[in-house]
């Protein structure tokens, strides 16, 4: 099965490369903004970084239901044009303030909040727009390639941004990001509206948001995925904060090292995304295995005695994190009815991104009080906890138990046994949609 099979579809290929360029600019701005707050506007205050992240990602919690309904009701292509222009204007405004030398911390907070509002509207639209570019058969692969694109950009953007932040300052980085949005707008212009797959639209009327919530309430498999995503997304995926604290406070290094280590982590992220693209249907058990792997890798990062070993530990952190995220995203999208997809994905994005207002300030406080290593330790605990939640659900949903066999040897003494009338097959172990006994 080809890893890049979705790129054979012209519309998706145009979208992929436009998004890649735009994502590079976005990661450049994120890195420059983080370092602007951490090193230029504060005295290495991880708590201020946490507040910035919370303001930028917090609107997901409040706007997600309406954003998902917009994605299910209106033209996703037109909605994307609006959100992309808005994000370009915001990066321009913040860049001008920084270049004029009048930017203060509260300015960054305001722009982070405004960007968060636009991003909250953009996220479910962008996620579900892929289903208009490819068939359902190609959808998991296209979702995984989107993650690969995002993380190739994450590998390139922070490294370039780290150098440019040192050489010319963060203001110019923000303006470069403005230019990168042109690539995405041009890609949308090249994709004719008439060539997009027609998707069912949610009917007008009251109760459409509640309809989406009821759908998720009747899907326990999606519920457990959302629980795992919330735990890891809230307390584990605060790596801009973790890396800044370890680089600046623990190892005494500069913005160049901060950008480089972000890029090093992205090596693992890209690998995880490409492996997900090569696989077929996303599997539930892989989500929880990846969560456990992320917890172990984060523990190794927390214990790293120097920057080199810390960087090496970031590679498996990125690999397991992206395996979890991509598999969870692909599973939810590919098993959700098309007419409900926008609302379900908005809830997914709200839980994934919107948990940051809770986690980022807390983790920033841990970094300030206990030190950077304890903050990374929070990520390790989050990964292990998500794995335990997933394992407990699988055992309960499939009615499994661990049985001791005296006649066997070694670890073969123990085997998993089903309490159902029929045996649990490999297909059942994936926890696909359907009634749970």
From TrEMBL:
PROSITE patterns (alphabetical) = MFS
Instruction: Enumerate the transmembrane spans.
Output: 12-28, 48-67, 79-100, 163-188, 224-245, 257-277, 284-304, 310-332, 344-367, 373-395
Q: Write one Gene Ontology MF term.
A: transmembrane transporter activity
Which top-level group of life is the source organism from?
A: Bacteria
Its chief place of residence is membrane
Q: Which UniProt keywords apply?
A: Cell membrane, Membrane, Transmembrane, Transmembrane helix, Transport
What would be one Pfam family of this protein? MFS_3
List cellular component terms (GO). Answer: plasma membrane
Kindly list the places in or outside the cell where this protein is found, as annotated in its UniProt entry. Answer: Cell membrane
Q: Where is the Major facilitator superfamily (MFS) profile domain?
A: 1-401
**Topology relative to the membrane:** Multi-pass membrane protein
Query: Could you tell me which CDD domains the record lists for this protein?
Result: MFS_MefA_like
Q: What is this protein called?
A: MFS transporter
């Amino acid at each position: 099965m080809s890893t890049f099979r979705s790129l054979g579809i012209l519309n998706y290929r145009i979208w992929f490369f436009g998004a890649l360029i735009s994502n590079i600019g976005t990661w450049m701005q994120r890195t420059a903004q983080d370092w602007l707050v951490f090193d230029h506007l504060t005295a290495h205050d991880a708590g201020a970084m946490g507040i910035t992240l919370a303001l930028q990602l917090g609107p997901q919690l409040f706007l997600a239901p309406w954003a998902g309904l917009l994605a299910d009701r209106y033209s996703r292509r037109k909605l994307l044009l609006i959100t992309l222009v808005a994000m370009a204007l915001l990066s321009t405004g913040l860049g001008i303030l920084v270049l004029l030398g009048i930017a203060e911390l509260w300015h960054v907070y305001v722009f982070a909040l405004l960007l968060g509002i636009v991003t909250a509207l953009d996220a479910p639209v962008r996620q579900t727009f892929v289903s208009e570019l490819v068939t359902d058969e190609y959808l998991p692969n296209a979702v995984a390639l989107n993650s690969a694109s995002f993380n190739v950009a994450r590998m390139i953007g922070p490294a370039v941004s780290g150098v440019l932040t040192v050489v010319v300052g963060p203001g110019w980085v923000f303006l470069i990001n403005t230019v990168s949005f042109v690539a995405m707008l041009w890609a949308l212009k090249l994709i004719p509206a008439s060539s997009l797959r027609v998707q069912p639209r949610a009917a007008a009327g009251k109760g459409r948001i509640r309809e989406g919530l009821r759908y998720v309430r009747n899907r326990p498999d999606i519920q457990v995925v959302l629980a795992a995503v919330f735990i890891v997304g809230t307390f584990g995926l605060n790596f801009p904060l973790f890396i800044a604290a370890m680089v600046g406070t623990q190892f005494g290094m500069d913005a160049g090292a901060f950008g480089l280590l972000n890029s090093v982590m992205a090596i693992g992220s890209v690998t995880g995304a490409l492996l997900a693209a090569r696989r077929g249907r996303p599997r539930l058990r892989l989500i929880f295995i990846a969560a456990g792997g992320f917890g172990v890798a984060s523990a190794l990062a927390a214990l790293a005695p120097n920057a080199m070993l810390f960087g090496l530990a970031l590679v498996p952190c990125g690999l397991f994190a992206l395996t979890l995220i991509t598999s969870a995203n692909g599973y939810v999208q590919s098993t959700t009815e098309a007419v409900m997809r926008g609302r379900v994905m908005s809830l997914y994005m709200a839980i994934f991104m919107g948990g940051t207002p809770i986690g980022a300030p807390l983790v920033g406080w841990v970094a300030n009080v206990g030190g950077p290593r304890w903050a990374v330790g929070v990520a390790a605990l989050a990964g292990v906890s998500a794995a335990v939640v997933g394992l407990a659900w699988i055992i309960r949903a499939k009615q499994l138990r661990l049985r001791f066999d005296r006649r066997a040897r070694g670890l073969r003494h123990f085997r998993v046994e089903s309490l159902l009338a029929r045996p649990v097959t490999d297909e059942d172990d994936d926890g696909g949609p359907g009634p749970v006994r």
